[in-house]
Amino acid sequence: MGEDMDSIFYSTPRFVIQEEMLIKNLEILKKVMDDTGCKILLAQKAYSIYQTYPLISKYLSGTTASGIYEARLGKERFGGETHIFSPAYIDAQFRQVLEYADHVVFNSVGQAERFAHEAKQHGKSTGLRVNPECSTQKGHAIYDPCAPGSRLGCTIDQLEDAVKNNAKFSRDVMPLIDGLHFHTLCEQNSDDLETTAKAFEEKFGKYLRDMKWVNFGGGHHITRGDYDIERLERIITHFRDEYDVQVYLEPGEAVVLNAGIFETAVIDIVHNGGVDIAILNSSAACHTPDVIEMPYTPPVSGAGKPGEKKYTYRLAGCSCLAGDVFGDYSFDEPLKREDKVVFEDMALYTMVKTNTFNGIPLPPIYYQKGGVAEAIKVFGYDDFESRL
Ligand SMILES: *Cc1c(COP(=O)(O)O)cnc(C)c1O
Description:
The protein is of the alpha/beta class. The chain has helices at about 10, 20-35, 55, 70-80, 95-100, 110-120, 155-165, 165-175, 190-210, 230-245, 255, 285, 290-295, 380-385; strands at about 15-20, 40-45, 60-65, 80-85, 105, 125-130, 180, 215, 245-250, 260-270, 275-280, 310-315, 325-330, 340-345, 365-370, 370-375. The chain is about 30% helix and about 20% strand.
């Protein structure tokens, strides 16, 4: 039984990236670029499966990186423009930043003072991330860069103080800055962008007049069915025309929204305290850590909310962590060993965050084109051992 190669346990768990949905998203994003002249970058922190970069790079202008290795991956595997932002650059890595990135965004006056000169000497475009101090997020405080006490972005008070009272900054550094960057959204629609853009403009508009570009960051759920693209395009063209700047967007999620699934299978059913628990051959802690960290409950194909259908189960992972739980769901039929469980919308913030905690293997990554899914990455023991 355990050696049956046709068994569900040989074909799962696995991630499957779905080309058809990916292309659908890319066409939506490309249209926004064509309509407005904006440039859209892939935020690699959400999705870095570089085997698909040849396709994505046919549509988008480049990549943005949150760390040095993402910058290198973007430069080497994607091409186009390579942008980077870091809350603070590590001095020993800055040479490498300059090797891979062509747009370098600083988080503070101090960071710009330290590095802007060197970046300009190397022919880079430089930016300053600002904090419009305009919270539009309800749920997830850890994803709100405008939350009180945030370290992300330079506030208007900090910038004005430096411009007025720091002669060296205003004379030698500020003129080196080519663009302003803000990133405040997470899975939001263009009404929240509009609110944010207004706050940004009121505070920082006068500085934008001297700039070449503005970057609206990520968190725009542009490819979601109910997203108001017309409003997004109005906001972009307003900035383009009023300030004569190149507008950038750098979504991660929107590029691969609904473009992948995570296929798993039930290996055991246990019951405790009236809860029916299906243990899967995968782990939320290892394979979809955002489910626990964010936290959120991913959609499961054919399943309803707890109690909605006849049989309710807690879907749980196979690590030793007590909280290794995907969520509670209901099904039309009782679950049993070898049943397949498919999590949807699993291309984003999954494969970039997997880990081998507990010595649990990494699921292979498949690419589905037409009806056929082919493995593009298979992991083994070496991937576990090599990090230890
Ligand atoms: C996270 C992040 C993004 C991408 O955000 P999504 O929510 O995946 O669209 C873009 N820019 C910056 C600076 C980020 O931190």
